[in-house]
Design brief:
Elements lengths: L16 H58 L1 H12 L6 H27 L4 H17 L1 H10 L7 H16 L1
């Protein structure tokens, strides 16, 4: 029994059309499979790279927010100035208010970074929710933050500026 009939088999000339058609079909099938494999490999690489970038964004966000705290831990004088500045900013000298407001500026920069990273979906929602609640709590409970914002609000652009202004508006309406 013959699986392939080779009687009248021709590679060139009349009768060879079926051979070349079959060869073209085989070449196309192999090409499509190779393209599929390449696209699948690229998809996996892109997914892995996206994970790595999200992980780096997460780390950067934590660093941006925690860096000001490192200063407090490392320097007791700065910690005391910031503590007084949060609760009674008018009690600080001009030099100490400058130190305190610079600290708050770094904190607000970290909050702004988180705000935009959250908007891009680059950091976990849980990180944003916790940090945002912390910073909103500062607005609601620390008079020094109100003074800071009144002096430095022009340093922050939209839409973050309006987002913060809403929190100060909520504070003002809750105090009335």
């Amino acid at each position: 029994m013959h699986l392939v009939n080779t009687d009248g088999f021709a590679i060139f000339g009349p009768g060879s059309e079926w051979f070349w058609t079959m060869l073209q079909f085989t070449a196309l099938a192999i090409t499509f499979y190779a393209i599929y494999r390449q696209l699948r490999t690229q998809q996996l690489q892109i997914r892995d790279n996206a994970k790595l970038l999200r992980s780096q964004a997460h780390f950067n966000a934590i660093e941006a927010v925690q860096r000001p705290w490192h200063l407090l831990i490392a320097n007791e004088d700065v910690a005391n100035v910031v503590n007084v500045g949060f609760t009674t900013p008018e009690a600080l000298s001009d030099v100490d208010w400058f130190r305190c407001s610079t600290y708050m500026f770094m904190q607000f920069n970290g909050w702004e970074y988180l705000y935009y990273q959250h908007g891009d979906g680059s950091i976990p929602k849980e990180l944003w929710m916790g940090a945002d609640a912390y910073f909103k709590g500062l607005i609601q409970t620390k008079p020094g933050v109100t003074r800071f914002w009144s002096e430095f609000h022009t340093s922050f652009d939209e839409p973050f500026h309006s987002y913060i202004m809403q929190e100060f508006t909520k504070k003002a309406s809750s105090n009335n």
